[in-house]
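[step 3/7] fold_predict: job queued, chain A
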Amino acid sequence: MTSPPVAITMPVEDGLSIGWLSDLVVHAEQAGIDTALVGEVAGPEVFATLGVMAARTERIRLGSGIVAAYTRSPALTAMGFATLASLAPGRVVAGIGASSPIVVDRWHGGDFEQPLATVREFIALLRAALAGEKLNHDGPRFRSHGFRLDLPATDVPIWLGAINPRMLGLAGEIADAVFLTWCPPAEVAPKREIVEAAAANSGRDPADVSTVLSFWAYAGPDPEQALERMRRQVLAYAMVPTHQPAFVDTFDNLPEVAAAWQDGDRAKALSLVPDEAVLAQCALGPDMLADRIATYRAAGADLPIVLLTGAHVGDDIGPQATVDALSRIAAP
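[step 4/7] structure written:
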């Protein structure tokens, strides 16, 4: 009997080397993990990192979690995924999302306008390019004339990162999977309903759009320090305007926390984040991790994805311990 699949996302915000991260993916493959994703924040560049991992593995599926639709052109993004697919045929997925104003505007000097329209146009061009079509497009967000990929890759599914209702609906219309994050178990079914309705309205079979779901977890030897790290992570993401709606139902004092944050009192804001708000979004310890995965599956998630985190920046013990805990869950 085969166990249901489990996935991981690399701890790219923990200051760990690419060599160590690729060692971890090799370990995860040996442990029976189904998929490993690499996010892109301000550390590793996603395609270079995935290329190293693809060269060192044979079975595990690899993907981005996520690539922003603003920081690369659709043509360049297609080149990146096609390169990976040539190196690791049949085991590459493209996680795409809008990202946030902080990343797109402040960090990259872009224009975080019209995220829904931008993502829709980006994915249409990405699909066309991966299929080997010549791009002749002059749209409101992107222009490309005469580009044709020399290395087509038609077997790269697209997972669309979505938090808010309109992006969830877009996932139902155009994606192979909706990629949920910062989504407690009780919110999976309502979000899935939005996806399914949009799929049906666009003439698709809702069953063709799977649900993958990422949540932060730690099953290492220092749970108290990890809880404080998670508290900082929850606070940081809850203060991002595009992400904040995901925390409303599990963060009872969110307005008070946001007010302290806006006043520049980060210490006060952090002190106001209750354990309940952290543990509604994150799993701490092997038992909670196993229970959360089972709960997400029961709620309708086809692939639970554990975003590995260390107890502190530079922690190379906690993420591996979490993979080891997952290996016991993934064992047949």
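[step 5/7] annotate
The chain is about 45% helix and 15% strand.
The chain has one domain: 7-222+282-330.
exit 0
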